[in-house]
Specification:
8 strands
Length: 234
């Protein structure tokens, strides 16, 4: 099977992230570079990971006017990342601009087209937090609304909570890839993730990729933790 594990390199420095990546590379399918690490280490860190042959999921969740997001996605494409996130809440025009930019930039630069992923509802959010920003209280309904909008915009993948996977699979084209954070093994301390499943549960529900952070990078032995999670999926 294709290794579906994307390990979140949610660490403060390039050295720490690269050390972790070297340890766990045989047991993961890609590495997620998020806001903390990218702000600290910048594009050079992405280049160093790519130089090792590792795939990169650039998780910066762009959300701005369409032209700005298009330029940001173009920059990510030129960095040769395999996935990049944008907020589906940015709207139809913004998402279309992002997908078009990824395709055009890839063609111009001789890169593969990265998978532009629309983030639906963050896994730290629940009905109460949605209500606070004027979106009602039904998380599932909001996720479906944004997912349908993303497909209309031409996106080929979505980021969603594992608890929304089954419902989204019922309404989305089969070719749409679903990437889910909020993965927990059950052995971790409680944190800000509110809607979670285990790795096997998420795959069985229909996820294509699993973003796993703390269960690996915060483990006493990250390599052993990654190997154990991969073994549990087979």
């Amino acid at each position: 099977m294709r290794n579906p594990i994307i390990v979140a390199l949610d660490l403060p420095t390039a050295e720490a992230a690269l050390d972790l990546a070297r340890q766990i590379a045989p047991f993961v399918g890609a590495f997620k570079v998020g806001s903390e690490l990218f702000t600290s280490a910048g594009p050079e860190l992405v280049r160093r990971i790519r130089a090792t042959g590792g795939s990169v999921f650039l998780d910066l969740k762009f959300h701005d006017i369409p032209n700005t997001v298009a330029k940001a996605v173009a920059a990510g494409t030129r960095l040769d990342v395999q996935m990049v996130t944008i907020h589906a809440g940015g709207g139809l025009e913004m998402m279309r601009a992002a997908e078009d930019s990824a395709r055009q930039t890839a063609l111009q630069s001789g890169r593969d087209v990265p998978l532009v992923l629309g983030v639906t509802v963050l896994t730290s959010m629940d009905g109460h937090t949605l209500s606070e920003i004027g979106c009602g209280t039904d998380v599932g309904k909001q996720a479906k609304r944004l997912a349908n909008l993303a497909v209309k915009a031409g996106l080929r993948g979505l980021v969603c909570s594992p608890l929304e996977i089954v419902a989204l699979r019922q309404i989305l084209p089969e070719k749409i890839q679903l990437i889910t954070p909020g993965i927990r093994t059950g052995a971790e301390k409680a944190d800000d993730q509110k809607r979670t499943l285990t790795p096997k549960q998420a795959l069985d529900a229909g996820a294509d990729w699993l973003v796993i952070g703390r269960p690996i990078y915060a483990a006493e032995n990250p390599r052993a933790a990654a190997e154990k999670i991969l073994a549990s999926l087979r």
